[in-house]
UniProtKB/TrEMBL annotation, chains A, B:
<dbReference type="InterPro" id="IPR023717">
    <property type="entry name" value="Pro-tRNA-Synthase_IIa_type1"/>
</dbReference>
<dbReference type="InterPro" id="IPR036754">
    <property type="entry name" value="YbaK/aa-tRNA-synt-asso_dom_sf"/>
</dbReference>
<keyword id="KW-0648">Protein biosynthesis</keyword>
<keyword id="KW-0067">ATP-binding</keyword>
<dbReference type="InterPro" id="IPR045864">
    <property type="entry name" value="aa-tRNA-synth_II/BPL/LPL"/>
</dbReference>
<feature type="domain" description="Aminoacyl-transfer RNA synthetases class-II family profile">
    <location>
        <begin position="35"/>
        <end position="488"/>
    </location>
</feature>
<dbReference type="InterPro" id="IPR002316">
    <property type="entry name" value="Pro-tRNA-ligase_IIa"/>
</dbReference>
<dbReference type="GO" id="GO:0005829">
    <property type="term" value="C:cytosol"/>
</dbReference>
<dbReference type="InterPro" id="IPR006195">
    <property type="entry name" value="aa-tRNA-synth_II"/>
</dbReference>
<keyword id="KW-0436">Ligase</keyword>
<comment type="similarity">
    <text>Belongs to the class-II aminoacyl-tRNA synthetase family. ProS type 1 subfamily.</text>
</comment>
<dbReference type="Pfam" id="PF04073">
    <property type="entry name" value="tRNA_edit"/>
</dbReference>
<dbReference type="Pfam" id="PF00587">
    <property type="entry name" value="tRNA-synt_2b"/>
</dbReference>
<dbReference type="InterPro" id="IPR004500">
    <property type="entry name" value="Pro-tRNA-synth_IIa_bac-type"/>
</dbReference>
<dbReference type="InterPro" id="IPR036621">
    <property type="entry name" value="Anticodon-bd_dom_sf"/>
</dbReference>
<comment type="function">
    <text>Catalyzes the attachment of proline to tRNA(Pro) in a two-step reaction: proline is first activated by ATP to form Pro-AMP and then transferred to the acceptor end of tRNA(Pro). As ProRS can inadvertently accommodate and process non-cognate amino acids such as alanine and cysteine, to avoid such errors it has two additional distinct editing activities against alanine. One activity is designated as 'pretransfer' editing and involves the tRNA(Pro)-independent hydrolysis of activated Ala-AMP.</text>
</comment>
<dbReference type="GO" id="GO:0002161">
    <property type="term" value="F:aminoacyl-tRNA deacylase activity"/>
</dbReference>
Amino acid sequence: MLLRLSNLFVRTLREDPADAEVASHRLLVRAGYIRRAAPGIYTWLPLGLRVLAKVEAVVREEMQAVGAQEVHFPALLPREPYEATNRWTEYGPNLFRLKDRRDNDYLLAPTHEEMFTLLVKDLYSSYKDLPVTLFQVQTKYRDEARPRAGLIRGREFVMKDAYSFDIDDAGLEASYLAQRGAYERIFTRLGLEYVIVAATSGAMGGSRSEEFLHPTAIGEDTFVRSPGGYAANVEAVTTTAPAEIDATGAPAAHVEATPDTPTIESLVALANAEHPRADGREWTAADTLKNVVLSVVHPDGTRELLVVGLPGDREVDLKRLEAALAPAEAEPAGDGDFAKNPVLVKGYIGPQVLGRAHTGDDTAIRYLVDPRVVTGSSWITGANEQGKHVFDLVAGRDFVADGTIECAEVKAGDPAPDGSGPLELARGIEIGHIFQLGRKYADALGLKVLDVNGKQVTVTMGSYGIGVTRALAALAEANHDEKGLAWPAHVAPAHVHVVATGKDPAVFEAAETIAQALSAQRVEVLYDDRPKVSPGVKFADAELLGVPLVVVVGRGLADGVVEVRPRVGGEAVSVPVAEAPERIIAMVEAL
Amino acid sequence: MLLRLSNLFVRTLREDPADAEVASHRLLVRAGYIRRAAPGIYTWLPLGLRVLAKVEAVVREEMQAVGAQEVHFPALLPREPYEATNRWTEYGPNLFRLKDRRDNDYLLAPTHEEMFTLLVKDLYSSYKDLPVTLFQVQTKYRDEARPRAGLIRGREFVMKDAYSFDIDDAGLEASYLAQRGAYERIFTRLGLEYVIVAATSGAMGGSRSEEFLHPTAIGEDTFVRSPGGYAANVEAVTTTAPAEIDATGAPAAHVEATPDTPTIESLVALANAEHPRADGREWTAADTLKNVVLSVVHPDGTRELLVVGLPGDREVDLKRLEAALAPAEAEPAGDGDFAKNPVLVKGYIGPQVLGRAHTGDDTAIRYLVDPRVVTGSSWITGANEQGKHVFDLVAGRDFVADGTIECAEVKAGDPAPDGSGPLELARGIEIGHIFQLGRKYADALGLKVLDVNGKQVTVTMGSYGIGVTRALAALAEANHDEKGLAWPAHVAPAHVHVVATGKDPAVFEAAETIAQALSAQRVEVLYDDRPKVSPGVKFADAELLGVPLVVVVGRGLADGVVEVRPRVGGEAVSVPVAEAPERIIAMVEAL
């Protein structure tokens, strides 16, 4: 393969695109790999499409290697199957919905669980047909509230989605592990660092799920790791609750005036100054109970107020909150909500007046607490009166929550839930997600087969996704420097970038000869044969485009040599022009 | 490659799907290549996807061979570019439209002229950048009023669309011819018979256009051919109008009572009986002027009445009418239209009261005539009074039309417009369409480059489409018999279908050995290793699936032979089992 820059459909840009926040976005656009067509929607130019095809090929090969069979579903799908599983509604505004000319409802599929379930139901009827794992590499749609970071969070994107169908739980576990292994091989072959973390299932449903995260500071996902090997998406971290406390003999709750304490810090300072503990221990923010009022939006659009109580030294983590409430969403309550609910005294909310369990009133505002708020624990919290807080308010004695919720931020140093040591936090991009769905979809859509005894049994399923375009962006993130992209050889749009510099026809002839010789030996060559472009621009373009080996044919030719230099790490070497193709091929093979 | 039927995701069906009208649809579903997901929307199963990939590969190779560069556009696109060319409106109900969560208008692209134009505008600025031809193989959407015939007229389908950009008309001609040549090679390589016919440009706009039709009785397109080599889609046939006639001395028009003449035949009979011509010639249907009232629907939804006059021996051809009126559509006028326009006396409409030119009234109903209605021609037509017709009504003397329209049916025997002899009619499937768009899109979207003199000039464009999934269906139409599909080797999902019959483990061992030996030599093998399926079912499935060579390992094994038979045309041969792989490879190479 020989691409000539003189006619290749590419233009490099010196300026960063205005909307680009991250390197992959900036560089993929500047290097002419992709162009924005609409927010979160991109066009693939020739070089980008070549990289994408290579990433897809690795994914396909590893899917096939574990026996997954490729199919291809439409993107435009009727409403009914998604209605049967309630996802038509649960997806809320993330789903692109439309009507056809007969006024029938359609959607642009975000994932295809329903369709795969129906297809297997359509074709298969016996345990003898199972297990089967099907996959597709297909264009998906999600109407993201905030498309961002180029390909990392887009609205039209390529995904590999696979679905396994098994007769029993052991089969599902085996299918799940086969996909998990394939994912490890895919990301290893792509040269994409990954961490496997425990995850929540979100709108997908099901029991066990794990994410493959590519660790990077620009990642949208926060995950935790412990020295003992625990790893989880921050949404999936469970809090190690302290033991319940025997509150017999604890002081009775007492309301105190707490003027001028707009912050938890000022409240703690006042408490230590004016209401010290009997045992002399200092009050800390962790002794205060912060109550946060949220407006929960259910997928059907209805709203409900919710108050969440958590230790004052922790913030609400919105992503953990969202995962805990999914498929509902939540936002901070507004002034209108407070106005309509005079029981909520802004800044002085306490649980004494909250919760259905506590008040015995089914219409009361629900009150959920962080797992650290155990029975017997004692708190400083709002007294539901302007300027006043209550001290020594004991959980289980003075108030009862309607349940617990995992929405407090996870902090570095928190204990791993499995006792494997203190957690450290890091950020990553979700590049894969595997789910044990169980029987949710099969139940909803009636996928049963005859078992060995001739009895109808519901099939158990797994679903397995790789964000293909997102993985490509992660590769760009992991492989660039300030000058441009620097692709690993196996996904680079070409192996060798030949640059002819100057105006000497002999240079162009020699470069042409080398380019053709390499191309004839199956080396993929990008040849910068542009006649009137300065060496400086050509070198800058080579660095921006990121082909792993750069061959410069120029002034050295007078001495019978060309220069070969790796795009990153490694010295330029002079190679006699006659040996150039052979030497370069060896270097390509060593990449 | 070795696929085993024991676990391949395929189920053959004995029954035809209820909605299948044509063989390709029936057989592709029955053989488990595709499944219907919604009207006109199909899922590709593993075997279908293999054939599709092979067809796409041929298309890609020939595109690249003429220097076209592959890109990939989104399917989900913003309204604005399509608004600029008016296609947002012109596409009418054929366009899938939707809104995103911010209430912005989007569409699912039916073709991508606008986006390619904008992309080239975005990247290129000089004549030195041209010519360039770009293509994509991409999923397209069209909300067909009547999706039918499986993949032949679908609502989601794969298309190869290419676009050329040139500085001048000569460049466009060269780019057009390069694509035309590539199309010939693609269809030749696919083994798909084709006819290139002159075509109309329809909603696409532009000047010259040609269609590649695959001749088949089930085709939706009618085309004509002459002995002298003229070929055209029936919509593009222009009528050879007779010379104008000197009507000096022609009899004056006279109204006659014509009771009981509900048909043209009865009118002609009455005319010959009661009002014979002075010169003794018989009246024929061709002497009557039939006036058809149509309700024209403009893309913006407004309606307008139109009367079309044509010789009584011809019907209105709705597809020619549609092409003539595009982007407007037309349907027969309804009773309400007649009620609102008392000037139209149903069954007795004559042009004396019609037309803006004739009546001088800008609000009058427009009146267009077939080109055969030349100045001086004389007609029997309605007298705009119940039970009466007018005789000897002369065009240009007694009425004037507002123009001509090509909407009369073309009949076998009509003269070719280029004088190359009488036309014959045939039917075909449109598998390719190439357009010289000219500057329509570049003008609308401001695509200009600097010419050699530093002056801004508008780029001229071509657009070139192949219905990839439709071509696959055409291949299935052309290659089947009553028993099933019969793929040409280069697009078949496998080269060899190995069938192991009976229960003897030795048979399965031998079959396995052959299948593996072939697969190791890059022969693509489908191996029917199902243990409990009868030979009859296996043979029927082999015939239905349509792999070109069938190898039967069964009873012959006792005599040391296996049987190799071509799926169609050719004798079964017995081959010693030891020589089987070698002999079969030779037969595959000869396919």
